[in-house]
Write a structure and sequence with these properties.
The chain is α/β, with parallel strands linked by helices. It has helices spanning 2-11, 15-18, 20-35, 69-82, 119-129, 147-164, 172-178; strands spanning 41-45, 61-66, 87-91, 104-110, 130-141, 182-190, 194-200. The protein is built from seven helices and seven strands. This is Ubiquinone/menaquinone biosynthesis methyltransferase.
């Protein structure tokens, strides 16, 4: 985990610029859709540079965690610029969350579990801190069911692993189920490579 965090510390200076085109064309509207579903006390796992912060409902309380100091510095700057008093940002490992069981009404992750070194461990931690009956909102890219669509993902995979530790071909929907979540709804946003997955804890 430490090595991946170092990659993101280095990359944090360029991260928003690197994703600027895809963010403006697609990801921002995906975020708006996903974050509109957040309620109550919210944990955002992997808050990054705070790209989700503008899209949260005004009446929620958000704790955002990330393992990269560099990314959190960007997120804190964005939080201040937006004047958000209902958001708190903490340095923390998604695989070892420092919260009590059943602490949150909503858990959010957007494009995170492609990067967590042990995704099942991280997802089980998210499950642990979610209240029974709570909602988990996953906006994630993952391996497609189409062999053809997977060709560019496999070509990109070694580059992204070297740059940020991100896997382009994780089977995140299956991992969510393995971690104990009950999947309520799946919406394919960009073919089935980018999916909005709504899950609950029974």
């Amino acid at each position: 985990m430490a090595e991946t965090a170092k990659k993101y510390d280095r990359f944090s200076k360029f991260y928003d610029l690197f994703e600027a085109l895809i963010e403006s064309r697609a990801f921002s509207k995906y975020r708006r859709k996903a974050l509109s579903l957040a309620k109550g006390k919210v944990l955002e796992v992997g808050v990054g540079t705070g790209k989700n912060l503008p899209y949260y409902p005004k009446d929620v309380e958000v704790i955002g965690i990330d393992f990269s100091k560099g990314m959190l510095e960007k997120a804190e700057k964005r939080r201040k610029e937006l004047g958000l008093k209902n958001v708190r940002l903490l340095l923390m490992d998604a695989q070892n969350l420092e919260f009590e069981d059943n602490s949150f009404d909503t858990v959010v992750s957007t494009f995170v579990f492609c990067t967590v070194p042990d995704p099942i461990k991280g997802l089980r931690e998210a499950y642990r801190v979610l209240k029974p009956g709570g909602r988990a909102i996953f906006l994630e890219h993952m391996k497609s069911e189409s062999r053809l669509l997977n060709v560019p993902l496999y070509l990109m995979d070694p580059v992204m692993r070297a740059l940020t530790g991100t896997s382009m071909v994780r089977e995140t929907q299956k991992n969510i189920k393995k971690a104990g979540f009950k999947i309520e709804r799946v919406e394919n946003l960009f073919f089935d490579i980018v999916r909005l997955i709504i899950a609950t804890k029974s």
